[in-house]
Specification:
The chain is an alpha/beta fold and 209 residues long. It has helices at residues 2-19, 80-99, 135-138, 183-203; strands at residues 40-43, 46-50, 59-62, 66-67, 114-125, 146-155, 161-170. The chain is globular, with a radius of gyration of 19 Å.
Length: 209
């Protein structure tokens, strides 16, 4: 057993050296947001801006999530169809989180008190499932995929930017999490949607769900 470990450990470390540096990094500005100049660092994977007016809006138009890169023109390991499915998943998560537990109406028509949510995916990194099934590799982050995105809230009538964010990051370091190729990207998206709802509740003075 010791001989096996002596062989396997160097192999794992070599794999980490090859794959660990391929994580999600702060993305370059895509030009998707109406304004980037007021973004401030909230965490090492989160830039954010708020005009302090979000509490004045209690209905939301959630636009279809956009893909801000072309898989045909990049080294993306995903097909157009797979990325389209991820866009739909992102939309579903946002709508579900916004509306759940007596939340906020998602509507289609602009008007007073209605904010428009715009979201764009800027990158997706593949999960290497084979590296997520052992504790040795999972704790190092080897094999963890993820995603990056930009999003903003704008007044549905005037287009004024009410809030904006740039987010990037991986999935979970829990063993067996993120086994599928898009598993960690979906974990990150779920986390961002949950965080968005929590921030909505905070500015509207609601108790955490």
């Amino acid at each position: 057993m010791l001989a096996v470990r002596a062989f396997v450990l160097p192999l794992i470390l070599a794999t980490v050296a090859l794959t660990g540096c391929a994580g999600i990094k702060e993305p370059e500005r895509s030009g998707f947001l109406t304004d980037y100049s007021r973004l401030e660092e909230i965490d090492d994977d989160f830039l954010f801006y708020s005009a302090g007016k979000t509490h004045e809006y209690d209905q939301f138009i959630v636009e279809p999530v956009q893909l801000l890169f072309s898989p045909e023109e990049t080294d993306s390991p995903f097909t157009r169809e797979e990325l389209t499915e991820l866009q739909a998943f992102f939309n579903e998560q946002l709508v579900e989180r916004i509306t759940e537990d007596d939340g906020y109406p998602v509507v289609e028509e602009p008007g007073p008190g209605v904010a428009r949510m715009r979201v764009g995916i800027t990158d997706v990194k593949k999960t290497i499932g084979a590296l997520n099934i052992t504790i040795w590799t999972k704790v190092t982050g080897a094999g963890i995929g993820g995603a990056s995105a930009e999003y903003e809230l704008v007044d549905s009538v005037t287009g004024e930017q009410l809030a904006a964010a740039v987010r990037w990051g991986g999935g979970s370091r829990l063993l067996m999490a993120g086994i599928t190729q898009m598993g960690d990207a979906k974990i990150a998206i779920k986390r961002w949607a949950k965080d968005f709802r929590e921030r909505l509740d905070e500015v509207h003075g609601r108790a955490p769900q």
